[in-house]
Structures are given as C-alpha cells and as structure tokens.
Amino acid sequence: MLVTRPALHPKAAAAVRSLESKGLHPTASHVLWLQDAAKKIKKASKTRTAEMIDWPLECGGIRLYRISIFATDWLLKLPVKMQDDPFVQAFACAHSHDPDTLKSLCTPLKLWLHVKGWKSQILASKQALAACLAIVMGDEDETVEVVEVTPRKEPAKIKTDDEPADFGFLVLSLCRRYPGTTPQYWSCEVSAAYALEMLAIDEDCCGVSGHEITMGVAFRSIVAEIEKELRNG
User: Hey, is 213 helix, strand or coil?
Assistant: First the structure.
C-alpha cells in the first residue's frame, strides 16, 4: 500500500532550525507542538502571506532573516562605511530578531572586531552572500543566480533621506491598527518590509487579518517557551 510520508510544515521546520542554530535540540514533543501550531496558522489563514513572514534564508552555514525595523534602525546609526559593508549587513540580518546582541555592540570598534570573527563562519562566496542579502534586505535589482536561492518579489525597502526615520511612530501605528500585537513584535520579530506592507494595506481590502497576525504572535510565543524549556534543561 502506498502512503504519503508526513512532512514537517516549513514554518515549524524553520523554527526547529533556528533553535538548533542556537545549540538547542528540540525533543519529539517540541517538534509535534510546533507542527500543530503551524498547521493551525495555515488552516486559519486566507493567504500565504500570514505563513511566510520570517522564514530564514540559509547562506553558507548562517541563517539570514529579512531585516527587521530594529535591525534597520541599528544599521542606520552606524557610520556609512559600516552600513555599506556586506558582512555588517549580513550580521544585522542574522541577528534581526535578536535585539540584545545588536544592542551589546554599542561602538563601531567593538562591532568591527566582533564581525571580523563572526564572518569566518560564512562558508559562501561574496557573490552568494550578495544575492542572499539582496533578498533579505529587500533590494533585488542586482541579484545573481545562486543554487537553492529563490528570489521573490518584496515590498519596497525603507528609504531614508537626511532626516532619520521615525520608527517609533511606525511601530505604534501598527500596534494601534492590529490590536493584540506588541512593539516587540513589529520591531524585532518580523521584517521591516512586512511591517510596511501591513501598514500600507487598505483596511477594507482582504489583506492579512489581525487574527492571522495574532496567531503568528502565538506561534512565536510557543517557540520562545520551547527555547526557555531547553535552556533550563
């Protein structure tokens, strides 16, 4: 008899890989919990957008997330030379959901030294890294073809003039528009491109609903709880 082999939901699989990248090893019970939560999100979602908020893109042994509002703000406060450095950009994306790590690197010198050691983990060519960065930072105008990298159309990236962007107002506006979400969620747990997209959606159109976003927040809470259990042993 032929049967279909069950597959792990991509969102659950991404969560498992994220935990493993931190040196944690989810048990079968944890994986089952993540799978159940991911399937519930899929069942309740009217669009795939709600499922595809933050899947990491693997590149040469590291995982790059689409850059968050917090990571964007952190990057824009650096000297221009550092802002344009691909390894600093990759570091910002790799730690896009980890504000504590970004906050700890409070001076340019400290950051340079840290990134110098960190970039030795990247087992990919500069061309491959550039292609991945173009995707996660929302600028695909000059991407090159890389095996197993599938570019997808992104909302326009945040553009800045001489005046600094008011990210605080953006975050508060999103919290007000989508009750049940938090500043932490919009600042650090989803990409800046996604946040801008959600703010731009006409309230009367059929975009991602507040309920779908709330379920996404719940999924993150489950991942955080699993991480806490694994760390506390």
Answer: helix
Q: Phi and psi dihedrals of 196, rounded to 5? A: -65, -40
Considering the domain architecture, whether residues 78 and 139 belong to the same structural domain is answered as yes
The DSSP call for residue 151 is -
Centre a 10 Å sphere on the Cβ of residue 178 and count the other Cβ atoms it contains.
Answer: 21
Quick: pLDDT tens for 26-36. Answer: 999 999 999 99
Across 138-150, average pLDDT? 41
Range of the domain at 169: 57-205
153: tokens are 């159309």
Residues 130 and 106 placed together within one structural domain of the fold: yes
Terminal alpha carbon distance of the chain? 42
Give Cα 90 to chain centroid, integer Å. Answer: 12
| Residue 100 within a domain | yes
d(C-alpha 219, C-alpha 112), whole Å: 34
Residues 6+ positions from 204 with CB-CB distance below 8 Å: none
CB distance 161 to 66 below 8 Å: no
Residue 96 has φ and ψ, to the nearest 5°, of: -60, -30
What pLDDT is stored for residue 43 in this prediction?
A: 66
Residues 6+ apart with CB under 8 A from 231: 24
Smallest CA-to-CA distance from 157 within 193, 207, 202, 104 is with 193
2 part of a folded domain: no
- pTM of full prediction above 0.70: no
Helices (H) and strands (E) in the chain, counts: 12, 2
**Among 53, 31, 28, residue whose Cα is nearest residue 42:** 53
